[in-house]
Amino acid sequence: MITVASLFSVAVFAPLLGALVTGLLGRVIGDPISRIVSVGLMVVSAGCAVAALWFGLAASAQAVAVPVSTWVQAGGFHAAWTLRFDTLSASMVTMVSCVSMLIHLYSVGYMSHEKNPVHRFFAYLSLFTFAMLMLVTSDNLIQLFFGWEGVGLASYLLIGYWYDRPSAVAAAIKAFIVNRIADLFFMVGIALLFLLFGTVSYDNIFATVPEHVGASYRLFGTSFPAFEVIGVLLFIGAMGKSAQLFFHTWLPDAMEGPTPVSALIHAATMVTAGVFLLARMSPLMEFAPVAKGLVVVIGASTCFFAATVGLVQPDIKRTIAYSTCSQLGYMFVAAGFGFYQGAMFHLTTHAFFKALLFLSAGSVIHALHDEQDMFRMGGLARKLPVTCAVMWIGSLALGAIPPFAGWWSKDAIIDGAWMAGGGLGGFAWTLCTAVAFLTALYSWRLLFLVFHGRPRVPELHDHAHESGPVILLPLLVLAVGAAFGGWLLRPWYIGEHQAAFWNGSIFNAPDNHVLATLEHTQGLIALVPTILSFLGVAVAFVCYMLKPEIPAQLARSMRPLYLFLLNKWYFDELYDRLFVRPYRALARLLWHVGDETVIDGVPRGLARLTVGGSSGIVRIQTGSIAVYAFTMLIGLVVLLSTFLLVR
Amino acid sequence: MILTQIAFYLFATVLVLSAAMVVSARNPVHAVLFLILGFFNAAGLFLIAGAEFLAMILVIVYVGAVAVLFLFVVMMLDVNFTQLREGVQRYAPVGAAIGVVLLAELVFTVARWQVVPHPAPIAAGNGLPPGITNTEALGRLIYTDYVFLFQACGLVLMVAMIGAIVLTLRERPSAKRQDVSKQHARMPADTMEMMSLSLGAGTTGNHALAAGRDGFLRPHDGYGAVADEGGPGVRAPEDHEADHHHGA
Amino acid sequence: MNWTLALPEIVLSCSGLFILLFGVLQKRSEPSFACTMLTLVAFLVTGILVVVAPDGAGYHGQFVNDGFSRFMKILSLGAAGLAAILSLDYNRQEKTARFEFPVLLLFSTLGTLVMASSANLMTLYVGLELQSLAIYILCAFARDELTSAEAGLKYFVLGSLASGLLLYGISLVYGFAGTMEYAGLRQVLTGGAPLAAGLVIGLVFVIVGLAFKLSMAPFHMWTPDVYQGSPTSVTAFLAGAPKAAAFALLLRVLAQPFGHLAGQWQLLIEIVAIATMFLGSLAAIGQRDIKRLMAYSSIGHMGYAAMGIASATDAGIRGTLVYLATYLIMNAGTFGCILAMRRRGRALTRIEDLAGLGRTDPTLAVLMAVFMFSMAGVPPLAGFFGKLMVFAAAVQAGLWVLAAVGVVTSVIGLFYYWRIVKVMFLDAPVAGAFDHRAPSLSFVSAVTGVATVLFLLVLGPVTGAAQAAAAALFG
User: Fold this and answer.
1) Nearest-CA residue of chain C relative to B148?
2) Would I find Transmembrane among this entry's keywords (chain A) (predicted)?
3) Domain extents for chain A?
């Protein structure tokens, strides 16, 4: 196990080393070396992660803690730097470091046209990867929170990487603030956990979960079960990171960052943190049925909402961004039904095909010199044959066309929802199945608009060219994953080997039979999503290849609905009215009245008093001996009188 | 004893009255004269108390020296007393108020003070044999027991003297003093030179032209320089400057 | 009688007379430099004698030697020595270099030694007069300057008034207690007899008389005028040794004979200290002349130092003594910097003359900044520790108001000290660089600057000595 522990440590800390070297010494060692160091260390990290997972599985041991150092030791509060090695964390580490490594490699090509040195970019990327690895390998909630916030910080830095663009800066701030709001709930959740269990370490918490099942909080005369409260609070934190409904607004805006960043955020890191959190906290969540129900509702709603918005977006990256949002909804639905294995499975396959899609979109944008509007593209299949091919593979995976990766994971989730049954199951199944159609529709809308048909803007089309090998190599690797990942991984994640694979790192309550019943889904029901997916492809072919006037007519005839979708259900406007403006008004009030009048007023008044007193005293100092003598005598009399009176 | 009582009240009354006159007299000369009168009466009180040495010292030192010095100063200095008086009038109300309050407080507290009916003699502890004069007793005290303070007082006076000299003594370089040794050591050649003049040239003309011929004696530096040659008492060049500038 | 008790004083006065004689007889050249050097030697010898002098009381109860007197004497001698060094070049440049200057300085210092050793109200008075009279003359030393003469006269007239009040107080005390010796007074006051009102009134008068010398409000009025008008070398001395000596008197009188009346005088000292701190910090804000500013600054410092007395505890007096030690160091250094303010042979005293000093003379500017920060009480400089101790003592004694006022006025004080630093480093230079700095000034500034910065290293010994001195006072 020593080898596994050290391999695992290297996998986690190699990106940190890369971030430090490129970030602190980037100026000294120069851009080329920075790139080599950064990518090289990521390769090391990915290699070690794969090796660690392999050996770990071979040894099939229980969770192993790799102590690094003590962190906080205050009274009864202990938090240590410890790497937790179990299948959950190891599989996440492997996925994160592999995808991140490919994105690093891709960035070398993608960022080659930057005017400014890009060592800063690689430092941020590596830091981001390290923070995510820290998050997934945490052994306690405080360390998890460290990684959680580290991811938030790095995403802020990366989204705002082009700091001379006001829109990028605004998007970075928006991402950060939205995440902070969700983090506040998360922190409260951690604090409540600590109060309840007296520890923040996973092992200690999970070991004592059954003892605290009956605990409850009383607030406003009502009693709330403690686990439900904590579960909801943790889920709100997860909603922020995973951009679920109500906290999703930052995700599409995050497209302002360079495309590799979008790929990293959407595929491997950050957004998956929420799903991972629920899987990690499964021993606790299993005892919070209401919270789980909420997870299902939010997940399914997000899934549907994002898919509808994705239908009408003209921007290539935004379309894919909303698809991420939507796919995360699937994962939460699975997690909400206690089907954490399915969530993790979809998370992993999604990482491959979503990274693939984003990087291919980046390749397209790169080829068209930063053009992102799909309605100005078209017919690029001949110009960019490799990109077109890999994007097809990515879309086939995303659209859940068998036997590509997405089909395996998504169908499992939809089946799980059906088998869970009840009102909640019906609701989730209906929405998820509808979204399967929508997903295929907007995916092929994108493909047809970008790669097929006639070029809409000839001059753009003429200058397009296929990207270099540095960009294409990661695409091809990811395409392999997107094509075969589902088929290869299914037996381990949710199939026959799952119990041995997860090895107790995910907890299912005794009454939770989702996994067992998965195979018993009725044949026709199991086929419905697949059929709908094919239907979506067909509709897209009709609308965007055969009769391109249909979408325009639809948009005209159902203008309110179109605008509603185009404006993302008016969430941004709603938030502006509900939160931003009242907050600004309050801030203005506090600024003018609270700060300027009261807080500034007191010292200003004191200063005026001081200066006034000073000039008064100086005025007595006339230089006349008589005045001086009288002052002395008056002083004497005053002292004497005080003395005689007080005595 | 009754005579002593009468004398006491006489002296005391005159002392208080003359003290009042010192501060209220319009003419400063009169004020000083009242001061002298006050001193005399105080000396009388000392005599009654049996402190004949203090009485004599008061008369000799204060009347004979200090008061007379005051008188000189008052008469010789050109002080505008009406102006001073204006200042007094301006501050009179404040001064009076402070004085009254202070007096009231003192009276208020001191009034509760009772004289010990049979006071023990204060000097009893000094172990002096009885019948010794108080001059001698004072002398013994001052020069033996209180020698430290006596010497310290001497130093105070010393400092006062230094101060008087430092602040007032100015050595005037224009004053002519005779330095005999310097005068004796002087040789004619040190100061005089033989000048010869060609016909019609002035004494300030070019020496070299006329060197070696017969002529007349004159100081090296011309006639104008003689007066500037200061005596040996001149201490530092800066004093010249200061005195030329500020001199009386 | 053991006359060797007063050996340091005797030696110092004899050397004073010798130096005077030497100065008068030295006809050929100006003996000012030689006399100053001799004075320094005399200070050094006296200092050694002070250290080795035996403890005990003598001279018929007029004189006492103990740890306290030794501490204060060393402080006085040190401060006076630094002032003498500071005067060396300044007096020459100002053309007031006469040999009487060191002689008067010496006698004034002698006065401070006598004050520190007083065991009798008469000794107190004579020592005070010896010290004051010499200073009156020194203030008017630049006799051709109108301001100097005015300063001397003002100080003299007001000082006489204060002396009168002090004498009146002493006479009241003597009248009601029947003795002027501290030991005797202590016996009378602890005898259990009802306290005579006249005695405490006398005490108030004595306090007022001493408060004048300490320039504590409202008896401070002379301070700015005299500080500004006197030759700067005199101001440097005036702000140093005499303050320490006056504090020695106040401490000794209040702690020894009147120690049992602490409840009575505590309030008075508190009132005076509060008034002094406020006045010192407020009035300094509007000043343009750095000497005047230093006057108010020293007023403020006296207020802080008095906090220790007001707490009337061992720790408080120890704090006061440490405060005085640090104050004397900072004061000498600051005046060393002020004396170095010369352009084209003319001495400058306006604050705006310092503008841009950080660029024209960084060494001087840094030194000055160190002293200013130290005076403001910024850690880890010397001034911080004294402040810390007196504040802590006041808090321990439950004098919260006093401590709060101290903190508030410290903040105000920081403003005007900082203003000087700002003028030096942030303002643009208006005129050229200062003249070349005289070696004596460089020496004093550098030595005191190092002492200010590294005071932490000697904090232990100094506090230990102060503790011993305070213990001697109470024991």
Assistant:
1) C59
2) yes
3) 140-571, 600-646
